[in-house]
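Aim 2 progress. For Photosystem I assembly protein Ycf3, the working sequence is reproduced below.
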Amino acid sequence: MSTMHWGYLDAGNLAGIYYEQSQLDMAILHYKQAINCDSTFIEAYNNLSCFALQPNHPQALSSLGNIYMDCNMMSVAASFYKATLAVTTGISAPFNNLAIIYKQQTAADGLVNRGNTFKEIGRVTEAIQDYIRAVNIIPTMPEAHANLASAYKDR
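Predicted structure tokens for this construct:
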């Protein structure tokens, strides 16, 4: 299936994965497909320009991480921060931003786990509240959405 049938964010996410795997040609191709899906997808334009200028420049990698973090695409952001740190440890922002991402992930995971416990003991309203809080922390967390849907169904 072509990424043209997906949304622009799907193509952008796939580009980030290819970048993480050092498949720059595929990453560039998918950023271009993301732009074809949505010509206002500024992040894809920015990422393409960074690749063109210097694909392993620490500031460029860190900036890409910032863009994905701003878009709540935390796993992709983390991959760019890790790539930055693989090139240099002389920039503090990637360390700080990874810590923020890991802290958010831990908080959201904890809320989902507590929600699961509440649901198991029949306290579905409290489970729903925890799942909603987890979704607010990490809007793209599939487990939180799935468990929230299940809790609403069981209510």
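Confidence is low (pLDDT under 50) at residues 1-5. This observation will guide construct design in the next reporting period.
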